[in-house]
Design goal:
Largest sheet: 5 strands, parallel
CATH architecture of the largest domain: 3-Layer(aba) Sandwich
CATH topology of the largest domain: Rossmann fold
Radius of gyration: 18 Å
Strand order of the largest sheet: 5-4-6-7-8
Number of strands: 8
Number of helices: 7
Structural class: alpha/beta
Number of domains: 2
Order of helices and strands: EHHEEHEHEHEHEEH
Distance between the termini: 27 Å
Length: about 180
Amino acid sequence: MPKAYSTFQAAKILGVSPPTVIKWTNDGKLKSYRTPGGHRRILDSVLKDFLASYHSEDPKIDISPKIVLFIQDEDYSLLIEEFFDHPTSVIQCRTPFQLGWQLSKGDVTHVLWDWYDNTVDALRLLSEIKSLPHLSELCIIGFIPSYEQLNPSFVHYFDKKTTKNLALQNLRIWIGNL
């Protein structure tokens, strides 16, 4: 199935607000379709054609996600999203199902994991992810509430009490600027 983007994702790629993308789809300038749930989706090819027709040069953007945020804390989510320059390098996941779906696509290099609990389900999920051959090299960075909850599957980690500046410095070192 072809890759498609939400109006919010398309807005980030185009550098405009989501209402602008909605207006363009309503006006027929940007073709979209609706999901069974009524959400607009814009195909990757349509978005590239739109970019090419409104910019003089051929678009050379990589619109595939690389980093997945599995974070419950909205403040950290916003902080991390703002950190990355490329608007589509970060995908939000709020549930284990969404995380699994994103990982199944095969283009994720890093997972920023909010380790909010030490439940059997969370431990099992983390263990299963790391045991899959195609995900064994996946870099998982943990946001932990205390060092007692440190998990050996995390490649890097930092305490959630860490200052925001230090958190960004650590991410810059561990991931670099995408």
